[in-house]
Amino acid sequence: MTPAVRRVGAPRPVRVCAGAGGRPLEVDGSEIVAVRESWLVEDRWWSEAPLRRRYWEVVTLAGGDLVVYRDLVGGGWFAHR
Amino acid sequence: MVVAVILPRFPLAIAAGGRAALAEGPLALAPEPGRAPLVGEVSAAAEALGVAPGMKISEALARAPALKLIAADPVAVADAWEKVLVRLESVGAEVEDGGVGLACFEAGGLGGLHGGSLDAVVKATRSALKLPARIGAGPSRFCAVVAASQARSRRPSVVNGADQLSGAPVTLLAHNPATAKLPEQLARFGITALGQLAALPRDSVADRFGRAGIAAWELAHGNDGPLRPRRPSEPIDETLTLTESASGPQLASALELLVDRLLARSELGGRTLRAATLSAHLAEGGTWRERVVFREPLSDAFRIRTALSLRLALLPAPAQALRLAAEQFGPAAPAAEALFDDAKFRRAGRLSEAIGQLRALAGPQAALRVLLAEPDSRIPERRVVLTPYER
């Protein structure tokens, strides 16, 4: 049987508390102290599985740098690293 | 005695979704994407309207305006044909693959298995096939093929030699690759029956038609070469479903991934690859298939990839899925000695051995390397994938 492709950096679900405008305030219990950048990715709009994500690069209180996104099609928050 | 099995209009029946569809009206196989605009195999209804295989689409539609073109599906046809060959082998036969729709085997050794008579062998073949087939027998391959082409779908036919071949049309020479182009040339000389060809002096036929003419003359006398049965082997293949239609660099990365995965399969057992088949499901519908025979048995991922990528460049449209299947195997790759005592070669040898042991313990996914699949993708998880480590 052919195994599935093993991707590096596959998104994993995270718990996010979001504030006004969708800005993350807390990721998996860690408080967010700064938002470094935010951007929107829209792709595969021509296909049956369109992709819309609002990305946030944030810094936690402990100094960690995280990239999280909200899936604007299926809902839910995910992190890449 | 050689037994020939013919499954008429096999590629068309598979592409149309079954034999029942062939009776619905005039059908023809549409040309494969990127190939010349000529119709492929045609149904009996289309043939009755004057449509013939190899005809230009415009001419075919002019002759039969109701003609329905069916998208060719070479991948499904190859899979279905492989199943047919395996079913024939299940009766104990050593089967020669004469191309899609034709298979031959020697019945001599099967008598003891199925009751001693040719009829019993044919009956066993029919019950294993589970498909309507024309079955014929004869002392040589060509006699058996002629017999099968004359057989009714439920009754086998036997052609015992040149005498019984004489009335058969020369178009049957098309079943032999060496004489496939001769029927048209013979027809121009008014030679339409094999008996007419057999009556000509051998030297005259050789002078006019060369090597192919001699082969045709021998066939018309009932003489044919020995069967070359295929070696049944366990299919080893890897398939990659592409999240969206891929072409160019994405496809090259997909090929790299497939080659690494195939070489990491434990069934390969260190053997080299002699031939492989690359196939794809196209985004615009239909399938594409290319068989690649390597100049020498290969086990090196880079050289296999290089050979395959030349064929992948012929892909006529973006692909949704790519499949790589190992078809023929060579001997196990010998452990080549380096010409000079080089630490680099020794290290590579030790690494290879360690990976081999690791895979034997933990499976093909045990040692992986990073492959840049779509480095410029806007979606982070699509940029990098893990693939089995191959030097």
TrEMBL record, chain A:
<protein>
    <submittedName>
        <fullName>Unannotated protein</fullName>
    </submittedName>
</protein>
Automatic annotation (TrEMBL), chain B:
<protein>
    <submittedName>
        <fullName>Unannotated protein</fullName>
    </submittedName>
</protein>
<dbReference type="InterPro" id="IPR050356">
    <property type="entry name" value="SulA_CellDiv_inhibitor"/>
</dbReference>
<dbReference type="Pfam" id="PF00817">
    <property type="entry name" value="IMS"/>
</dbReference>
<keyword id="KW-0227">DNA damage</keyword>
<feature type="domain" description="UmuC">
    <location>
        <begin position="10"/>
        <end position="148"/>
    </location>
</feature>
<dbReference type="GO" id="GO:0006281">
    <property type="term" value="P:DNA repair"/>
</dbReference>
<dbReference type="InterPro" id="IPR001126">
    <property type="entry name" value="UmuC"/>
</dbReference>
<dbReference type="InterPro" id="IPR043128">
    <property type="entry name" value="Rev_trsase/Diguanyl_cyclase"/>
</dbReference>
<dbReference type="InterPro" id="IPR043502">
    <property type="entry name" value="DNA/RNA_pol_sf"/>
</dbReference>
